[in-house]
Design a protein that fits this description.
By secondary structure, the protein is of the alpha/beta class. The protein folds into four domains: about 200 residues, no CATH class; about 100 residues, no CATH class; about 100 residues, no CATH class; about 130 residues, no CATH class. The protein contains 25 helices and ten strands. A hairpin with a 6-residue loop joins β5 and β6. α3 packs across α6 and α23 packs antiparallel against α24. The longest helix has 23 residues.
Length: about 575
């Protein structure tokens, strides 16, 4: 009779901690409960357990766990369920410590050696029942399993573990206090409850590949999972006997991007931008289905994972001008990348990624320089944020990969329809409102450099905001008597106009605050910046003054960011 491939059982979650040696594989994300903004899953976990505990013999269902018999030497690998298991272990540790705090060390030790760490007969060492991934395990052992109060926290996940312990330790202490003289029995009831009535469906399979297929099926709707989580498990399941290759490439991609988990937004953005650079613009919600539709065999899973690892190194370079990838392209290229980072245009990353993989270095340098002008023109012209612009960028990336585009000039021709021409750019610039401070600072510095006649004025070095501030000459919250030339409607319309903005040294800027223009005028005149000094030469500050000044800035913009 053939051996059953999958095993299904209904078990108490503490029983799983008692009867199995469990481990979180290296590629799984760190402990994450309590790290989702306003949501505190640990408090929710306790609240749900407590509501069922107080109803007598009712059972509480904690969902499904997926385990694999292989993947971690001498242990069962946790493919799905680590957050629940780890939090249950932390709760049991909190109960253990309440016994200790009340002088019952005997029961504390029984809780410890039953559910948390069992003594090895040969070595007499306590061997953990649950091992977390390498990022968390040392801290988890020292702080939770072995009660080291001063265990060093080196990761954000360590802070979450500590926060979970503090929360559960507090509620366990309150539970014991509420029980009065029956505190010991109440704590033992909680241990029994976790062992017998807090249930999970355990799906156990022989291999990790089987486990990932089960996991992906159970979570096909994507509830509480990121696209990257689903994709990882689909790839691992599809890779069959080549799982080690795919897993190592996946870990390599995470390492290249310096992110501890696939669920991070950086990793999801990378996946989408990489895929879009190969197959055209793809929305985040479409990404998983598109990849799943193309990667259908073990061989294609391996090829995709290897390409992903290679591309992740280049994507990391796009995010960091100090990356070694740029070492042979020189200081100017690094400055270009810093400016593109200031512009914060994610739409261009698929294009840059494809260019880095396929174009000659000199063409990459030309492209980055051009993309600064294209980006500013797109922002001012209002064409850069829409889906149509992203599609054009991604289509150009695909043509680069197909070998149909080999130069920056050809890319410019490809993007011509979304790059505002001079007349359109100047007209839009003359009335532009800039609400993002970093962008306004960059633009004013670049325009100042053009006014001074510097070469490459758009390559603005990182400015120290502690030394130079952005000044709204018409204040954001003006006193009407101080600014009689502006109605309330005009104030809203003109306060963020670029013609109303100036750069000032931090000290003077702090002093002039919301003062009227006649008080700001002498300070503006004292500035060494030509554009700021020119603002101080105005006799009055009105909507017409702002409009005239911005017209002059628009003329400078044509020279600063040529098409």
């Amino acid at each position: 009779m053939a051996e059953t491939k999958f095993g299904f059982s209904l078990a108490g979650i503490a029983t799983e901690l008692d009867t199995r040696r469990l481990a979180v594989p290296i590629y799984q994300r760190p402990y994450a409960w309590g790290g989702d903004g306003d949501r505190d899953q640990v408090t929710e976990f306790w609240g749900d357990l407590r509501s069922t505990f107080t109803t007598g013999n009712a059972e509480y269902f904690l969902g499904t766990m997926v385990l694999a018999k292989e993947g971690v030497p001498d242990r069962v690998a946790i493919i799905d369920g680590q957050q629940r298991l780890a939090t249950t272990a932390i709760l049991i540790a909190a109960i253990r410590d309440e016994f200790r705090a009340r002088g019952d060390n005997e029961r504390a030790n029984i809780v410890q050696t039953t559910y948390l760490a069992k003594a090895d007969l040969r070595t007499a060492e306590q061997i953990p029942q649950l091992v977390l991934n390498p990022e968390d395990d040392t801290y988890f052992r020292r702080r939770i399993l072995y009660s080291e109060v001063d265990a060093p926290q080196t990761k954000s996940s360590h802070q979450l573990i500590e926060r979970a312990y503090t929360t559960l330790r507090t509620v366990v202490a309150a539970t014991a206090s509420d029980a009065g003289a029956d505190w010991s029995a109440r704590l033992l009831d909680w241990i029994d409850y976790l062992r017998d009535r807090v249930r999970v469906i355990v799906v156990e399979v022989p291999t990790e590949a089987d486990a990932f297929l089960i996991f992906e099926t159970l979570n096909d709707r994507g509830a509480d999972l990121t696209i990257a989580d689903l994709l990882k498990n689909y790839l691992f399941g599809t890779s069959s006997d080549r799982l080690d290759i795919v897993r190592n490439c996946w870990i390599g991609a995470l390492t290249n991007l310096d992110t501890p988990m696939a669920g991070s937004q950086v990793f999801t953005d990378f996946l989408r931008h990489y895929w879009s650079s190969r197959y055209g613009a793809t929305r985040e919600r479409e990404l998983y289905a598109r990849i799943k539709g193309r990667v259908t065999t073990a061989a294609s899973a391996v090829q995709f994972a290897e390409r992903l690892q290679d591309a992740s190194r280049l994507y990391a370079a796009i995010l960091n001008s100090d990356h070694e990838v740029w070492s042979h392209l020189g200081r100017t290229t690094r400055r270009q990348l810093d400016v593109l980072s200031t512009l914060n245009l994610g739409q261009n990353r698929p294009l840059i990624l494809a260019a880095l993989e396929h174009l000659e270095p000199i063409e990459v340098a030309k492209l980055l320089s051009s993309m600064i002008s294209w980006g500013i023109r797109g922002i001012i012209g209002g064409v850069i944020g829409g889906g149509s612009a992203e599609r054009v960028y991604c289509d150009a990336a695909v043509r680069i990969r197909d070998g149909k585009i080999t130069t920056a000039t050809q890319i410019g021709t490809e993007l011509a329809n979304i790059i505002p021409a001079d007349d359109q750019f100047r007209e839009a610039f003359a009335v532009a409102r800039i609400t993002r401070g970093s962008l306004a600072r960059y633009m004013l510095v670049a325009l100042e450099r053009t006014r001074l006649g510097e070469r490459e004025p758009e390559l603005v070095p990182n400015e120290d905001e502690a030394q130079v501030n952005l000044e709204h000459i018409l204040p954001r919250n003006p006193s009407p008597p101080d600014w009689p030339g502006f109605s309330e409607e005009q104030r809203r319309a003109y306060v963020n106009r670029l013609g109303n903005l100036a750069l000032l040294a931090k000290g003077p800027n702090d002093r002039i605050g919301n003062k009227p223009f006649h008080a700001k005028k002498p300070i503006l005149l004292q500035s060494r910046l030509l554009l700021t000094k020119a603002a101080g030469q105005e006799s009055e500050w009105t909507p017409e003054t702002i409009a005239r000044r911005q017209e002059r800035l628009a003329d400078l913009a044509l020279k600063t960011w040529p098409v």
